[in-house]
Amino acid sequence: MNRLPKPLGLDLGFGFTKCLDGKQTVIFQSHVRQASGPSDAAAEQPAETYRIALEDKDYLVGNDTHGPSLFENFARRPERLIDSYGQRLVLTAAAPFSSHENPLHVVIGLPISYFRQWAALLVKQLTGYHKIGIYQADGHCGRKNIHIRKVHVIPTPLGTYTGLIMDADGRRQASEYDDLKIAVVDIGFRTTDVMVMASGRFCNRGSGTIEMGMANGFEKIAGRLYRESGVIPDLNRLYKAIRMGSIRIEDQEYNVTKLRDETCREVSLALADRINYNLKDDWDIERVLLTGGGAADAAATIAPLIDSEVVLIEHEQDVRLSNVQGQLRLARHMWGASGFCNAG
Fold it and tell me: Is 91 found in the same domain as 154?
């Protein structure tokens, strides 16, 4: 039987969990709750929602419309992303890529401050064999043994940087960033990461996690929709609505364009101040790269307020994938495109 290892890139974010192998992509809301028995078993689940069985308990993972929202979930105890949810989110994301116990070699991105605190625990939780059940639409639970042989955890923005200096197979390529001092700013759901790189080396000074992201604007929009419709949309629908400028709830169309623009500007102005503060001692930054799911919305407001040249990193499929694509390239660099390598 062919047991070739499969390299994966995986991004564990406060808004969304993303995973890809270069052919298939999985994105779902970073939300987990214990299933409540027959009612959840009978209910039709939203798209990108998974009912799983793990350690003799059933959980709903992903775009769940019940239970506390993500705004409440991480507000008081953000570390639950790792200590309560991390293993379940990663195994759910990795399950579609696992077959016949073929080993998985995974590079995982975490926000910088959480990387510093939780990387070792996450490696310990994930390395080894895991039995997971995935429920199908007909209620049948298919069992799977997932073998995660290698785990490497990195700061999330390093994925974007890796994507710029490596090709799709993980081979180092000449890049204009080789000799520059840059800041990679990853604007996410609940946090914004600032990572300083000087000639390809990570710099602690100036690098860190800002406890602010697009959730600050999303929460305001969700509150308005709740007051007008009595419904808080799940994060995935809200994300798409903000992209499109409108959302349909119970046959009623709600235009959020004006509110989106106002809240995005408010959040972006506040973020620009925090980014400049982080970089106040790095006067020689030559370029600031904006990446992550909130970058496209914030770029126009932030760019004129930053003292360096600002470049928006775009993605042909989904801006939320800029980091995880680079994490896959790093996995291929470390272990080879087929999973074999002398490094790691």
Answer: yes
